[in-house]
From TrEMBL:
One of its GO terms (molecular function) is aldehyde dehydrogenase (NAD+) activity. It comes from the Bacteria. This is NAD(P)H-binding protein. Residues 15-218 form the NAD-dependent epimerase/dehydratase domain. SUPFAM superfamilies: NAD(P)-binding Rossmann-fold domains. One of its GO terms (cellular component) is cytoplasm. Pfam families: Epimerase (PF01370). Gene3D superfamilies: NAD(P)-binding Rossmann-like Domain (3.40.50.720).
Length: 297
């Protein structure tokens, strides 16, 4: 856990889902935390986790007025809307924060999908984004707005580009669920490199970025593993005592899989996480998926 300010800053978590709740667990009450949620039904769970719930909807700018001048630090974990090439939710959030500037640090969880297909290349954060889907274009739009916001108002903005998040206790976020359904993966000659981060390590990366992130800086929030997707699922099957997934060709995948599944299987890259270790000084609890996959089982 990084050393925090002597005067405890007030943290606002926007989009306090699974990763946000893990951030709260890592904090152990050491910061006053507000959590923005559009669902009144989540208020009790957020209070139990140690946050003061705030009702607001990123799609409704009027509901965000109370955020002005409210928090020193902001952790933005909310995804964009499901349509369009712009992220209006991030725009609405930044407009609300700018009305009464108090925020000095902001961390945004983006996605490594902004790079598009890189044909298995290994690279660092200096590579330019080439988004191939509207989903990734919305993330690029959010990143650009956030960096402009930081540079214009003197806010230290850190952007974490996040790959596949997994954890045993993360709903829909562990390969055993896919393996149990017998879902196929690509044969080796068609396979792609994928990147991963354990959800607990991502929560710690968020806190490290709040404490140590450089202004307007992009950081790969990923572990050290470099695995083809099929090898990742084979390893998970071995560790969990499940059958290995069937292998199919890319042509067969086009017939059997949804467009979203195909988009993940059409992008191959290997990410350098040097900045995560050098600049944020984060020591991963699960640097390889072979330890993280069974953690908490």
């Amino acid at each position: 856990m990084p050393t925090l300010h002597a005067r405890r800053p007030r943290l606002l978590i926007v989009g306090c889902g699974d990763v946000g709740l893990r951030v709260l667990r890592e904090l152990h009450g050491r910061l006053p935390v507000l959590a923005l949620s559009s669902s009144p039904a989540r208020a009790q769970a957020l209070r139990a986790a140690g946050a003061l719930p705030l009702l607001g909807n990123l799609d409704d700018p009027a509901s965000l007025a109370r955020l002005a001048g409210l928090a020193d630090w902001v952790l933005h974990l909310a995804p964009p809307a499901a349509q369009g090439a712009e992220d209006r939710r991030t725009l609405n959030l930044l407009r609300a924060l700018a009305r009464s500037p108090r925020t000095t640090r902001l961390v945004y969880a983006s996605t490594t999908g902004v790079y598009g297909d890189c044909a298995g290349a290994r690279f660092d954060e200096t590579r330019s984004p080439r988004p191939a889907t509207d989903r990734a274009r919305r993330r690029v739009d959010a990143e650009q707005r956030l960096r402009w916001f930081g540079a214009s108002l003197g806010v230290r903005v850190s952007i974490l580009r996040v790959p596949g998040i997994y954890a045993w206790d993360r709903e829909g976020g562990h390969p055993r669920e896919r393996l149990a359904k017998g879902a196929p993966v690509l044969r080796r000659e068609d396979d792609v490199y994928t990147n991963h981060i354990h959800a607990d390590d991502l929560a710690r990366a968020c806190l490290a970025a709040l404490a140590r992130g450089k202004p307007q800086r992009i950081v790969h929030a990923c572990d050290d593993s470099e695995l083809l997707m099929g090898d990742y699922f084979d390893l998970a099957a071995e560790l969990c005592g499940l059958p290995r997934p069937p292998r199919i060709s890319r042509e067969q995948a086009r017939e059997q899989m949804s467009p979203m599944q195909l988009s993940f299987m059409g992008e191959s890259r290997r990410l350098d996480n040097g900045r995560l270790k050098r600049e944020l000084r984060l020591r991963l609890r699960h640097p390889e998926v072979n330890t993280g996959l069974l953690a908490g089982a």
